[in-house]
Write a structure and sequence with these properties.
about 325 residues, alpha/beta, Rossmann fold, N-(1-d-carboxylethyl)-l-norvaline Dehydrogenase, domain 2, 2 domains, 13 helices
Length: about 325
């Protein structure tokens, strides 16, 4: 089986290293720049509770040379997929499974979802449906990840906490291709779980991301600081409640436990959200798939989202002024 990890950043890079360590068959990674050069020269290094270890792995930026794969694992943030389509598509054949490890509402969201949806895509995630058209929603396998990791230097993944990868088909079936992804993650020492309701898993993680991440940028505050401010918690709670009504109107029968979600931020302590880390590093923030999409789904479903819309607008302007946000084309 040919498996390619496209975008070997922290989360997907950890999965790649773990699978390579146990000899998962015909495995390759696609990276770029200094990160690619370091992997090609020295292998992919992981720093975790076991210490520091390195595995050799095929690494390239030439996807045409790799050819069609059985499984392509996308480690790209939502707002970067469109620009990478020309490089991704040489890896995709008629039977390729595309597993996108991504935060927020995914580009395949409406595939196999019962109901009458006006278009099979969302402009805040996939403007004009370019990703859906290029990759094919029938190839998508969902993946929700709970991993704390970062890239401290090229060629190195630092694994801080977590290690759970939830994998599931959009139609809820227990397919062989989804099982094969879970199996290889588990063989690598990670926690792989097969889900029969992957959209529920998407929304469950999104409650925290859509509220805490943008507010952490607006306030430039860590998780504990957000959690200890009653007024900020009230705003976050309103955002989660609005998004809960949006989820119900978008084909997912799930109600968030607002108090539990807010308590999670207190438990995280002084950790900075990934969005705040990107903002402070001058990187583009992952805003539309986490929060902008809530307003779009709300308008489709007739659900008002005033708090989410306000925080989205404020965060978008602050990030754009700092060079950390550009609208998707």
């Amino acid at each position: 089986m040919k498996i390619c990890i496209f975008g070997a950043g922290a989360v997907a890079g950890l999965a790649a290293a773990r699978m390579a360590r146990v000899g998962v068959e015909d495995l390759s990674v696609v990276a770029r720049g200094d990160h690619l050069a370091a992997i090609q020269e020295n292998g992919l290094t992981v720093r975790d509770r076991e210490g520091e270890w390195t595995v050799p792995i095929e690494a390239t930026d030439d996807t045409a040379a790799l050819g069609i794969q059985d499984i392509v694992i996308l480690g790209l943030k939502a707002h970067t997929v469109g620009a990478a389509l020309d490089q991704i598509t040489p890896l995709i054949g008629p039977d390729t499974a595309v597993v996108h490890m991504v935060n927020g509402i995914p580009w395949w969201y409406f595939h196999a979802l019962p109901g009458n949806w006006p278009t099979p895509y969302l402009d805040s995630v996939d403007p004009g449906g370019r990703i859906v058209a290029a990759l094919g929603p029938e190839k998508a396998v969902g993946c929700v990840v709970y991993v704390g990791a970062n890239i401290p230097e090229p060629g190195v993944v630092e694994h801080n906490n977590g290690g759970t990868y939830i994998v599931g088909e959009p139609d809820g079936s227990e397919s062989e291709r989804a099982k094969s992804v879970v199996d290889r993650l588990v063989r690598g020492g990670l926690t792989g779980t097969l889900s029969t309701d992957i959209r529920r898993d998407v929304w469950t993680k999104l409650w925290g991301n859509l509220s805490g991440n943008p507010l952490s940028v607006l306030c430039q505050a860590n998780c504990e600081q957000l959690a200890l401010d009653a007024d900020v918690c009230g705003i976050m709670g309103n955002m989660i409640s609005e998004a809960g009504r949006v989820a119900m109107a978008s084909g997912c029968d799930i109600t968030p436990d607002v108090a539990e979600r807010l308590d999670t931020f207190k438990q995280l302590g002084t950790i900075k959200t990934s969005m705040l880390q990107d903002f402070e590093a001058g990187k583009a923030i992952e805003l539309d798939a986490l929060l902008g999409v809530i307003g779009e789904l709300g308008r489709r479903g007739g659900v008002e989202t005033p708090t989410c819309d306000m925080i989205y607008a404020l965060t978008r302007l602050k990030a754009r002024a700092a060079g950390c946000y550009e609208p998707l084309d």
